[in-house]
Design brief:
2 domains, 92 residues, 4 helices
């Protein structure tokens, strides 16, 4: 866990630094309390995909699901539109 936590922190700080170099003036518009809230929201957003995966298990994309069902992507889409299959948007 320590390696993953360190990598998460490194990635966050690297990207935050790049973003602040371009948009740092935006921080002039927030006070310390609001900045802390933004930091907390960033931490929640960073772990959200892991928490979601833990809660729902494996996720399949449209192609994987269509192949499993033995139908085309278009046929799977039609099933979702007609509420014969459930689907939710995800992200990488």
């Amino acid at each position: 866990m320590a390696d993953a936590e360190a990598a998460l922190s490194e990635g966050f700080h690297e990207h935050l630094g790049r973003m602040l170099a371009r948009h740092g003036q935006l921080l002039d518009k927030v006070d310390r309390r609001e900045a802390r809230q933004l930091g907390r929201r960033a931490a929640e957003a960073a772990l959200a995909p892991l928490l979601w995966a833990e809660a729902v298990g494996d996720r399949w994309d449209t192609t994987e699901t269509a192949e499993f069902l033995g139908v085309t992507r278009q046929a799977f889409h039609e099933r979702v539109k007609r509420a014969r299959c459930s689907a939710s948007q995800g992200g990488a």
